[in-house]
Specification:
By secondary structure, this protein is mainly alpha-helical. The protein is built from ten helices and four strands. It has a two-stranded antiparallel sheet with strand order 1-2. A two-stranded antiparallel sheet has the order 3-4. Helix 5 crosses helix 10 (281-294), helix 6 (178-187) packs across helix 7 (206-217) and helix 9 (254-263) crosses helix 10 (281-294). The protein is elongated, with a radius of gyration of 34 Å. The chain starts with a helix and ends with a helix.
Length: 297
């Protein structure tokens, strides 16, 4: 055994020892097949790296270039017509075979996975949470809704729900702004998933649109403009959405909040993403209860 091989084996031993030390210090469970395969792979990489390095370093000391040169060259540098080294060819073939095996059979699609376990645990917890809070009183819902609001809604709507000076909807005022109403009239709406379906754009224009927007933004008080009839056909004469068939444009109620949370909302002041996979029905109800409390209700 020459000095180079001895040094290589020592280096490999150090790498393997360091790997084992790190695994033990992190308390990694090697009974998990994924962790075990990773550990074996790390040791194999250390051994192969050192072995291949020793082999080719020794080979460079003794071998000399030989064979037939190809006709092509660049700046006087030619290339021999030697065959591809068998080790490279077999390594490439082995990698392809392993990749196909892992893709079709090796990856634990139908076996245990941490993501699957996490999803099952979340599903079970949400079911328990819903059962526990099924009959929660208003005070409990408001407290729960405040926690949800501060985490999920406050970054855009502000900790007090004032909309950060027009950057998002103002829940304290509670009314839809004239700018928002005009944007919906101009662009239509097909995002909240109501039974009435899509609202087509440009159902009113010019002064008619201005009159409707002023009336809705003003809390639907005073004389109703005749052109509001186009809105009343879906939203109702009182603007309350005909028992959930369409959006309530008179009041930011629980039904409207539920649809916005589940489907997101794009309007004149920006786009709000859907949060349907982040909240349970009870949490949405709690959020609606808290938002209504911001208006002093």
């Amino acid at each position: 055994m020459n000095a180079l091989m001895a040094k290589g084996l020592l280096f490999a031993a150090i790498l393997i020892g360091a790997t084992i030390y790190v695994v033990n210090s992190m308390h990694i469970d090697l009974s998990d097949p994924i962790n075990l395969i990773t550990m074996i792979g790390a040791i194999a990489i250390a051994v192969l790296t050192v072995g291949v390095s020793i082999k080719y370093i020794n080979q460079m000391k003794t071998d000399s270039a030989s064979g037939e040169l190809a006709e092509e060259n660049w700046d006087g540098i030619g290339e021999y017509k030697n065959e591809l080294p068998s080790g490279w060819a077999f390594s490439f073939l082995g990698t392809m075979i392993w990749a196909m095996w892992y893709w079709t059979m090796g990856y634990p699609v139908n076996a245990f996975s941490q993501i699957g376990q996490y999803n099952e645990e979340v599903k079970a917890y949400n079911a328990k949470f819903e059962a526990t809070n099924k009959n929660a009183d208003a005070a409990t819902l408001q407290q729960m809704g405040e926690s949800i609001f501060l985490v999920q809604c406050a970054p855009c709507h502000g900790t007090t729900g004032d909309g950060l000076s027009g950057k998002a909807h103002d829940f304290v005022d509670g009314r839809i702004s004239k700018k928002q109403v005009l944007a919906v009239i101009k662009n239509g709406s097909n995002q909240l998933g109501y039974q009435m379906g899509a609202m087509p754009p440009m159902m009113a224009q010019g002064k008619d649109a201005e009159d409707i927007a002023t009336y809705v933004a003003g809390g639907m008080k005073g004389k109703q403009p005749a052109t509001f009839a186009a809105c009343a056909s879906c939203h109702g004469a009182d603007g309350k959405g005909m028992n959930g068939m369409a959006a309530n444009i008179a009041d930011y109620d629980e039904n409207l909040i539920t649809h916005v949370v589940k489907h997101g909302k794009k309007g004149a002041i920006g786009t709000m993403p859907a949060f349907h996979d982040r909240m349970t029905p009870i949490q949405i109800k709690a959020l609606a209860t808290y938002i209504k409390s911001l208006r002093g209700e």
